[in-house]
Specification:
Shape: elongated
Number of domains: 2
Distance between the termini: 30 Å
Number of strands: 0
Structural class: mainly alpha
Strand content: under 5%
């Protein structure tokens, strides 16, 4: 990940004149950032295993670029969420990474178990692990992402079987389930976990 940030930082330096240009709109600069900078950082990111410190570094780098685009300095004392809102960016870089990772999880989960990605995801290694805290695994990130959507890993595995109408909507609207608090909506989510319906269709959301 550090190497990807370094490559992206080089692109940001090369585009210094564009970020400071007054005749280029902020929306165009944001599009350039998403196309040329963020795409370089997130290349193959769906396979990364990230800790909180690494997520923080990603957000720090992104905000440094977005503040440059918006002409905002630290002295302005503007919060990150306000900067994102001003530039009409719905998801920060970590949330985009989560979407990509969950999309890839659904892809792997639908693969045949005999394929290598399926073996790595569902396989089990026999033996004794060494003492100490185990290293963080990719599936641990998936569990965290599912927790952000208020569903369990088991429920997510069920939803991945319906890629177009269910899992895609669930991933694109990450966190929407948290806003659903009525008992009827909760029952719909429980049915979705049993494979009976799509939660996003049930609560009236569309891709």
């Amino acid at each position: 990940m550090a190497r990807r940030i370094g490559l992206a930082a080089g692109i940001v330096r090369n585009l210094h004149e564009i970020w400071n240009a007054n005749d280029i709109s902020k929306s165009t600069k944001v599009l350039l950032y998403q196309t040329l900078v963020r795409a370089i950082i997130l290349y193959n990111s769906e396979t990364w295993t990230l800790k909180e410190e690494q997520k923080r570094k990603l957000r720090v780098f992104e905000m440094s670029v977005l503040r440059k685009i918006g002409g905002i300095t630290r002295r302005d004392r503007r919060r990150n969420v306000d900067v994102l809102k001003e530039l009409s960016i719905e998801k920060d870089i970590v949330q985009v990474l989560q979407t990509r990772r969950l999309t890839y999880f659904g892809h792997v989960n639908r693969m045949q178990m005999e394929r290598y990605p399926g073996v790595l995801l569902h396989g089990y290694t026999h033996g004794h692990r060494p003492k100490g805290r185990p290293k963080k695994k990719w599936i641990d990130n998936i569990r965290e992402d599912c927790s952000d959507m208020d569903i369990s890993l088991h429920e997510a595995s069920r939803l991945t079987s319906d890629r177009k109408s269910c899992w895609r909507n669930t991933v694109q609207h990450m966190g929407c389930q948290r806003a659903v608090s009525s008992p009827s909506s909760q029952r719909q989510l429980e049915k979705a976990a049993q494979g009976k319906c799509c939660p996003m269709r049930s609560i009236g959301l569309r891709a």
